[in-house]
Amino acid sequence: MKAAVWKRQIQPLLVGNPEWKFQGAFCYRAPVVHVAYGVLAESSSYDTGTYLWRVFTPLFHALDHLDLSFSKRLDPGRFYEGDNTLTSAVQTVLTSMAATDDAAKLEHIAKYDGVFKGNIQTAESAGYARYLLGRRKTALLALRRVADYESDRPEMWDASERAQTILDLDSSSGEDAVKATLHQWSRDGAARLNLVDRSEKAQP
Q1: Are residues 91 and 113 in the same domain?
Q2: Domain boundary among 45, 75, 99
Q3: Distance separating alpha carbons of residues 72 and 94, to the nearest angstrom
Q4: How does 50-79 read in b/e, with b if 16+ C-beta sit within 10 Å?
Q5: Domain count, the chain
Q6: Taking the CB of residue 149, how many other CB atoms lie within 10 A of it?
Q7: Domain co-membership, 91 together with 110
Q8: Is 102 helix (H, G, I), strand (E, B) or coil?
């Protein structure tokens, strides 16, 4: 299903809710702070069907794509244009997300630490989420594991370097400096995915 078709099919569900925006096939709730969340329509390579994802994407490290490590594909599988089950599924997700604040989204990220063994980017994001939620001790423990992780993959090196940056900043400048840095990284991540309005981009 093309993004324009997907947008046209669910647009009626968003009437009266201007906080819901589109970026391609991703319908997300604005404004984004540290975690972007919404519904993603992922085209199937097998037929005209579409997979739907309930998306939670941390924005601490700037990527050119949505990180679906913290997201869930909706049942029953592929959805099709004009299918009432598609709009029903989207409505359920939109309703469940309507009251979700930044702290609740951070909690969703924080609980994933250690679930995906070897995926230090997941542990990294969980560590940042815990720090922002006020769990400094457990956050630093998670980030120390990330910083010390040895890998031959460059993207893992980046994660280790970022974690070390936060560890050093916590030691030298304290919590306010760390939180300010994580906030700026999140703004950069949102901008990289084009999940901010022009007015927001213009702000210092």
Answers
A1: no
A2: 99
A3: 14
A4: bebbbbbbbbbbeeeebbebbbeebeeebb
A5: 2
A6: 16
A7: no
A8: helix
Supply the DSSP symbol for 112.
T
Q: What 8-state DSSP symbol labels residue 14?
A: G
AA identity, residue 13: L
Rounded CA-CA distance 57/69 in Å is 8
Provide the residue count of the chain. Answer: 204
Q: Which residues pair with 51 in a beta bridge?
A: 42, 78
For the chain (length 204 residues), average pLDDT per consecutive 10? 77 85 89 91 74 92 87 79 77 73 91 68 93 96 89 76 96 96 95 72 42
pTM of this prediction?
0.86
Are 83 and 149 members of one domain? no
Residue 168, token pair as written in the block: 């050093």
Cα dihedral 52, 58, 64, 65, rounded to 10, equals -10
Question: Are 112 and 28 contained in the same domain?
Answer: no
Phi, psi of 182 (to 5 degrees): -65, -35
Same domain, 107 and 51: no
Number of other residues whose CB lies within 10 A of the CB of residue 161: 11
Give the domain extent around 176.
103-201
